[in-house]
Amino acid sequence: MGGVIQAHTVEQVRAAEAELMARVPAGTLMQRAAYGLAYAVVDFLAGAYGRRVVLLVGSGDNGGDALYAGAVLARRGAYVEAWLLSDSAHKGGVAALRGAGGRVRRTEPTGRRAPTDGSTGSNPRFDVVVDGIVGIGGRPGLREEAAAALDRLAGVPLVAVDTPSGVDVDTGETPEPHAVADVTVTFGTHKVAHLVDPAAGAAGVVQLVDIGLDLPPADVEALQAEDVAALLPRPHPDAQKYTRGVVGVRAGSATYPGAGLLSVSGAACGLAGMVRYVGDQDVHDLVHEQHPEVVGAGRVQAWVVGSGSADGAEGTLREALADDVPLVVDADALAYVDLAHGRPVVLTPHAGELATMLGCERVEVEDRPLHHARTAAERYDAVVLLKGRRSLVAAPDGRVRVNRTGTPWLATAGAGDVLGGVIGALLAGGLTPYDAASAGAWLHGAAATLAAQDGPIVAGDVARALPAVAGTLHTSPPG
Ligand SMILES: NC(=O)C1=CN([C@@H]2O[C@H](COP(=O)(O)OP(=O)(O)OC[C@H]3O[C@@H](n4cnc5c(N)ncnc54)[C@H](OP(=O)(O)O)[C@@H]3O)[C@@H](O)[C@H]2O)[C@@H](O)CC1
Ligand SMILES: [K+]
């Protein structure tokens, strides 16, 4: 898969770094990193000459990167001041910055001149903060002095070196305090904190600088469009509707008819050959009005169960389990998921539902989504799609895919029902639960983004945009 974004652990990065360092002259990697960082700052500021840059510098190589990049910027005419937050700092970096005309101090930089543009922002002296406090060698959280320095510079745009300082690099957790970046410039590969929330939310736009590391496959990754395109089922030239897969929906009830309709509208995205609906007659009539192609009970290759099923959730899950096919289990049916043990299943909880499944508080899931998604996947021996800004798809063996498509407008009632339907269609089309869940989440997010071009959206808009998104992938050449 060409474009997949891999996120490696600190241990993997360290091993690759050691292997490469043994083959190249000392300092090479830091120079590569520093130049990449400097050019990212130039991009961010749309120039270097006359720009005012403050470097926050910790005791390690992360600070070294910042200092060398500062030297590059100073040589290109930027005014650069480094604020050393520790008694020790990278000696070569300090010398390079001084040699290029930058200032280095142990106290808060004041800036060379007062603002002339009349700006009244909280810190008008600098155009950007370069956060070189800690990178992959840091412990989560920040020392008091570092936290105080970030406070003093609050309001100034921030470019983080490798990671926003203070986040937990391998888990994506964010024990306070930590930096919040507009841009994070990272080296060699993405780290888990760049993909997984809440840390990903603190990283801003992530830019990767290639420094030549040779890395093994990662457990955490994010699919890109071409990866999803390669996974989608394509109709064989002599396909007929049954060979393309039939997806069955058992969702919605007299109390929640919309859930049935929206699950069907996701399933009817065109990626399976046929959609069946089994459930309440009134819901069936409603479904039929809007989707005349949907038929009733019969053989299926995958079931979507649970959304809006209310009291009927256990019964519908048992009925679906009578067929030996993969399932998507959502909402009310998640309470009975033990019944599906050993089956190919995708569970699609949001944070609150996952908390109930694991016997913890919702906020614990929100603070540590990667940990809890993995725990649930292992405990239930199922693929778990934890819905959120960056949905996680966890497999029982510890692999995780992070979904990066979507828009805040997707936080709308019924969107989860549509998602379950799409995943069901992909399961019926023959994808594994892991692939179906991750491709489904990607399509769902991309459809929401497409639909939201015209403004706020409702769940039905997402469903209607699905065929167009899938069509774009089918027609674009794999890359
Ligand atoms: N890997 C690669 O390929 C390449 C890596 N490169 C760069 O090296 C970086 C890693 O450098 P690193 O190993 O020196 O560790 P780093 O992150 O600077 O910090 C460690 C020091 O910070 C301190 N400290 C710790 N926790 C803290 C906290 N919470 N709050 C405050 N301070 C804290 C602690 O120091 P202490 O004061 O406790 O002795 C510790 O020793 C990496 O992120 C990348 O930028 C590139 O140059 C080239 C290619
Ligand atoms: K940093």
UniProtKB/TrEMBL annotation:
Highest taxon above the source species: Bacteria
Coiled-coil zones: none
Residues that, per the record, bind AMP: K387, G388, R389, R390, S391, G416
Keyword Cytoplasm in annotation: no
Pfam families hit by this protein: Carb_kinase, YjeF_N
UniProt keyword Transmembrane helix, yes or no: no
Compositional bias per record (Basic and acidic residues), positions renumbered to this chain: 105-115
Record-listed (6S)-NADPHX binding positions: 61-65, 135-141, 162, 259, 308, 350, 417
Alphabetical UniProt keywords: ATP-binding, Isomerase, Lyase, Metal-binding, Multifunctional enzyme, NAD, NADP, Nucleotide-binding, Potassium
YjeF N-terminal domain segment(s): 13-219
YjeF C-terminal domain ranges (all copies): 224-473
Record-listed K(+) binding positions: N62, D131, S165
Entry EC number(s): 4.2.1.136, 5.1.99.6
Region (Disordered): 100-122
Role: Catalyzes the dehydration of the S-form of NAD(P)HX at the expense of ADP, which is converted to AMP. Together with NAD(P)HX epimerase, which catalyzes the epimerization of the S- and R-forms, the enzyme allows the repair of both epimers of NAD(P)HX, a damaged form of NAD(P)H that is a result of enzymatic or heat-dependent hydration. Catalyzes the epimerization of the S- and R-forms of NAD(P)HX, a damaged form of NAD(P)H that is a result of enzymatic or heat-dependent hydration. This is a prerequisite for the S-specific NAD(P)H-hydrate dehydratase to allow the repair of both epimers of NAD(P)HX.
Subunit structure: Homotetramer.
Protein family: Belongs to the NnrE/AIBP family.
Protein name as annotated: Bifunctional NAD(P)H-hydrate repair enzyme
Gene behind the chain: nnrE
